[in-house]
Amino acid sequence: MRFALAKPLLLLGPLVAADGAIADKAELVLDQVGPRSQFRPNLFNATSDLRARGILPNKRQLCQPGKVYCSNDDGYCLDSKPQCCPNTGICPTDWHCCGKLYCFPVGGDCCNDGTYCEPGNICQPVSTHFDCCTDKACTAHVANGTTISSTYGGARTVAAATTTTATVTATVTPSHSPSAPDDGSSTPVGAIAGGVVGGVAAIAIGAVAIVLFLRRKSKKKDSAPNAQPFLDYSRTPDDVADQTRPYNAPQDPQDPDKGSVHPDPTAPPQQPVIHEAPAQTLSMVSSGVWAGGIPLEQAWDLADVFDPATTMRTELDRHGYVGDVACSSAGFPLTAHFELHIEQGPILERAGKKIGVVQGAQSYRWFTFNVAGRDAHTGTTPLDARSDPLLASAKMITSSHAISKRLGAIASTGIIKIPANSSTNTIASHTSFTLDIRHPEDAVVAQVQTLCLESFEAIAKQDGKGVKLGWTLDTDSPAVKFDKECIQAVEAAANNIVGPDGWLPITSGAGHDSVYTNRKCPTTMIFVPCKDGVSHHPEEYCSPEDCAVGTQALLEAVIHYDQMRSGRKI
Asked: Can you tell me where the transmembrane regions are (predicted)?
């Protein structure tokens, strides 16, 4: 029996290209940048000229182990981590990164409010801001929020007014058809390697989460020359119009409409969120279409959760990836399917195991709840006259957590929407939120759903005049049990590679393409540990050793399964 490695379709989540980051210091950073040949070879079917430079079509570099990726314009691979602010770009020579956001001079002190103190000075909290002094003991002399820079002589650098936004790009790399059978008589055993880490490819559907970055240069407090730039993320998008006041600056008493936020001096700098997440309320779409579980037109019509005008079809058209070959199990049948993936959780790492032999995937359902009330003024509307959907939504989310915890399940909310024109002194007119219920057993998921709906209906009648509640079921993914022979093949491989104490049986907490391939052919999965259980995030990491162990297990499991089905002696 012949088997083929099916090439994956990989959507590379949100990639951010900073527009003009520290352009005025380009001459200082170019000599720090490694040559393009230092980028790790591209494994994801980029065109040959791009692959030679190790750059994906969307210009994201894949650095060799031990090097640090910096997203400054096209991005660079560096040898030194302190030179790189991962969320912003490259710091100038003799500058370091603070909190992944700011560049400050070696010997200086980075303040939590986005400023820094010159070398020899110490950053100290002063009421609602930070200032600099030359002795740690100076904190004892700070009182009533008065500035201390003139008293203690500390040189302090603050932000200037220039603000720009970054561009966001994402690209899908095309997949290639597997080799056709020589005589048409045998069907390939598909081995799909899963996980976007360490060069291990995946069949995956991701989406673009748009992240807005705000960048500002710096200047000395007293307009001193030769100030070095740093990047400030302490402002919200709505604050762009007011380019003279950071978001966390004290309120201007002459302009109270600007609002006021008094920062915690011990809090770390605010950081932009970068997390890969599905753009639609339906998961495993490509494999679902392949298995016949999701109609093609339904998949194409799926709308972005934040932009209904953007659909999967419009994005495929925009990138030129609407192909001529039908996505179906009839057109591309598999005899079996093995999927290698990082665990996306901490179980293997905590247990000290190298391989997870996946027995199946747990059940989950996704919902969207819409809560309608009435907008009103917070100061003039008594509690008994209110119809507050945000308050009701908060109670519903809290209730879902308590119910699921009591039944040993999981209930999570990832999206909450309120009207864009909401403000501090208004009651929102309507809200919506998502609910994700999961458990290894379908019956428990159904029970959590029933109890949540009963609780939500009761909450909708509480507090003032109550609210109106509506909901939709977006995804229903029943629990899956994988094929016993496929599992046995992975167990045999695991015993051979790491021994009986080096692996454990595990149930997938997330949905994978194997959930749908299991409908059409014998299927199982192989998990390898990932650091802290983090996935779909810049901090996702799987060691080269674990990647190699997983890949070897995949190879041996496929061979073992092929020999087992062929009746040859193992």
From this structure: 189-214
